[in-house]
């Protein structure tokens, strides 16, 4: 049976078991990296933030009090590091660039029936516009939307990660979706239509 995250933290914290912490890193690294990619829109920066997240968590092990799950602690560190990087950027970045790493997963479709180039171009335009709309959201709305709608976290989990009441999380998701819908409509997409 795999040890629980809390057990691994306890072993790393109280027994100096580096392998236990290594297991935590392997268990959560992919999700933390995906979160950083969506927050930062830059693969290299996301790699740096992912590494820094686990370094900071390891250094702060003595202060981890166990009131939250270890993954919520990792998420909080990642979000704070990502927001700090976004705020420290000298110039604003846009995602109209063809190398937006957020689009990699959604645009790779291996089903033969969807190999139509016109359909692929249409999907790419839709996803690029959606990514641009997400970029227009405030840090708070964007972070909440990424955690709930992209990462698939429950409102309860996100409330713990962000330190906000569940009702606030629900409002943020509603507001983010409303703003995205308006953004998409002003660019000629009908979010409630036939997918175009």
Describe the structure.
With 196 residues, this protein is an all-alpha fold. It has 2 domains: 1-93, Rna Polymerase Sigma Factor, Chain: A, CATH 1.10.1740.10; 96-196, Winged helix-like DNA-binding domain superfamily/Winged helix DNA-binding domain (Arc Repressor Mutant, subunit A), CATH 1.10.10. It is built from 9 helices and no strands. The protein has helices at residues 5-15, 18-40, 43-59, 70-88, 103-107, 117-136, 139-150, 155-162, 166-186. It is elongated.
Task: Describe how the helices and strands are arranged.
Blueprint: H1 5-15, H2 18-40, H3 43-59, H4 70-88, H5 103-107, H6 117-136, H7 139-150, H8 155-162, H9 166-186
Structural class comes to mainly alpha
The CATH architecture classification of the largest domain is: Orthogonal Bundle
Ranges where pLDDT stays below 50 over 5 or more residues in a row are: 94-98
What is the CATH third-level topology name of the largest domain?
Answer: Arc Repressor Mutant, subunit A
The number of helical segments is 9
Which sheet architecture does the biggest sheet show? none
Shape: elongated
CATH uppermost class of the largest domain: Mainly Alpha
Chain-averaged pLDDT: 85
* Number of self-contained structural domains: 2
Helix percentage: 55-70%
Query: Strand content of the residues, in percent?
Result: under 5%
Write down the secondary-structure element order.
Answer: HHHHHHHHH
The N- and C-terminal alpha carbons lie at a distance of: 47 Å
**Count of individual beta strands:** 0
Cα radius of gyration in angstroms: 19 Å
Q: By CATH's scheme, which homologous superfamily of the largest domain applies?
A: Winged helix-like DNA-binding domain superfamily/Winged helix DNA-binding domain
